[in-house]
Write a structure and sequence with these properties.
- The chain contains 2 helices and 9 strands; from the N terminus they run H-E-E-E-E-E-E-E-E-E-H.
- By secondary structure, the protein is mostly beta strands.
- Strands 1, 2, 3, 4, 5, 6, 7, 8 and 9 form a 9-stranded parallel beta sheet that branches.
- The protein is globular and about 70 Å long.
- It starts with a helix and ends in an 11-residue tail after the last helix.
Length: 146
């Protein structure tokens, strides 16, 4: 992760080997970045309260699971994994972007007020549009006329 800030990586897809943990010590390196981060293992979001990188569009893709700690109340980005675990908490979780769980979505958050959702997703199309060249395939058809 230190390479993201040291080399000022932006507008790229980064393949990360092993478990990836985003916490309060490294969450600010994502500010102003448009990145797709892929990991074959688990991705853990363990910030205290909010993970809201400013001016950034982020997609986290895990071959394992994406786990939110119980302290996380807000997170911005696109989260794609085989399994997504929102953590056990009596606080809600607000996602600004999207969540895609291929197999399991585990939500153990329980609010005292059952009229409010424990997980609230605000679909943010700008997360997708900013990352379009990195999460899609562009097909060109060329024709040369004589």
């Amino acid at each position: 992760l230190s390479a993201i800030s040291q080399e000022n990586l932006n507008r790229q897809t980064i393949i990360f080997q092993g478990n990836l943990t985003i916490d309060d010590t490294n969450k600010d390196i994502f500010n102003g970045k448009n990145l797709v981060i892929m990991s074959s293992s688990d991705i853990n979001i363990s910030v205290n309260s909010s993970f809201l990188p400013s001016g950034a569009s982020l997609a986290f893709v895990s071959g394992g699971s994406i786990n939110f700690s119980a302290n996380v109340t807000q997170a911005k980005g696109i989260y794609i994994a085989q399994s997504i675990n929102t953590g056990s908490s009596n606080q809600g979780l607000k996602i600004i972007g999207n969540i895609i769980a291929q197999n399991n979505f585990i939500n153990n958050r329980q609010l005292a007020n059952s009229a409010r959702p424990s997980v609230f997703i605000v679909f943010d199309q700008n997360q997708y549009l900013s990352l379009l060249p990195y999460i899609s395939t562009t097909i060109y058809e060329w024709r040369q006329e004589q």
